[in-house]
């Protein structure tokens, strides 16, 4: 794990492991439901976050509700979030490494959320998904091939 990178994350007070972990689950759910890629751009903050996807239209109200429900179903399973390290060659075969930074070392850190999701990431995460709280989509919009989803978390 890159210590300086984690230092940078921790020093950013807006950075929120709950939000960031929700982003992983949202991405995998988008891939499964809409066959789009993971978000190519995002802005993750404690109060509210947004993720952008390449897609061809906005979501319907029914789809938003279903997406919201699916993400919460995954969270409520209380899946374990764990890191695993793979050599770059093995990781390339097993996972989608399109977002891997070019300067990544020979060991690739994969974050697994139960059997639901696995992707390379160097960020900070919750250890169990129920720590995320309740996922809530605020709004979606569509503009020039970009579907934007805004969401917040409700914690006790
Ligand atoms: Zn992550």
Verbal overview:
The protein has 156 residues and is of the alpha+beta class. 32% of the residues lie in helices and 29% in strands. It is built from four helices and seven strands; from the N terminus they run H-H-E-E-H-E-H-E-E-E-E. It has helices spanning 3-11, 17-34, 61-76, 88-94, and strands at residues 41-43, 49-54, 81-87, 107-113, 117-120, 134-143, 146-154. Strands 1-2-7-6 form a four-stranded antiparallel sheet. The chain has a three-stranded antiparallel sheet with strand order 3-4-5. A hairpin with a 5-residue loop joins strand 1 (41-43) and strand 2. Helix 2 crosses helix 3. The longest helix has 18 residues, at 17-34. It is globular, with a radius of gyration of 15 Å. The structure holds zinc ion (ZN). Zinc ion binds next to helix 2.
Mean pLDDT: 89
Low-confidence runs (pLDDT<50, min 5 residues)? none
Order of helices and strands: HHEEHEHEEEE
The hetero compounds bound to this protein are: zinc ion
- Structural class estimated from helices and strands: alpha+beta
- According to DSSP, the number of beta strands is 7
Considering DSSP H and I runs of 4 or more, what fraction of the residues is helical?
Answer: 25-40%
**Outline type:** globular
In order across it, which strands form the biggest sheet?
1-2-7-6
Determine the strand fraction and express it as a percent band. 25-35%
User: What composes the largest sheet?
Assistant: 4 strands, antiparallel
Q: What gap, in angstroms, lies between the N and C termini?
A: 31 Å
Number of helices: 4
User: Could you state the oligomeric state of the chains shown?
Assistant: single chain
Instruction: Give the C-alpha Rg.
Output: 15 Å
